[in-house]
Design goal:
Helix content: 25-40%
Distance between the termini: 43 Å
Radius of gyration: 17 Å
Number of domains: 1
Shape: extended
Structural class: alpha+beta
Low-confidence stretches: none
Length: 77
C-alpha cells in the first residue's frame, strides 16, 4: 500500500488506500508503464476512437460494439 499527501481544494489530504497491481514494483514504475502505454504509437493513433466510444457520438450506437454496461454511460433521449 502506498501513502502520499495530496492537495485538494487547498487542503492537504492523506491518500493511503492505494493498492498497486502486482506487476508494479513501485508507484513510479506504475506511472512509467502507463505513460509508455499511452505514448505508444498504436495508442496515440486510436485514442480518439476510445474517447468517442466512451464520451461521444458512438456511445449509444449498436454498430460501435460498445461493450461497456449501459449504467456506466449517460442515456441520451
Amino acid at each position: 500500500m502506498e501513502e502520499e499527501d495530496k492537495e485538494l481544494h487547498g487542503k492537504i489530504v492523506r491518500v493511503d488506500d492505494i493498492v498497486l497491481p502486482p506487476w508494479a514494483k513501485s508507484r513510479h514504475h506504475f506511472v512509467q508503464i502507463n505513460y509508455l502505454a499511452l505514448e505508444h504509437p498504436k495508442t496515440r493513433a486510436n485514442l480518439h476512437n476510445w474517447i468517442d466510444l466512451i464520451f461521444g457520438d458512438k456511445q449509444q450506437k449498436v454498430t460501435s460494439f460498445n461493450l461497456f454496461k449501459p449504467l456506466t454511460s449517460e442515456v441520451k433521449d
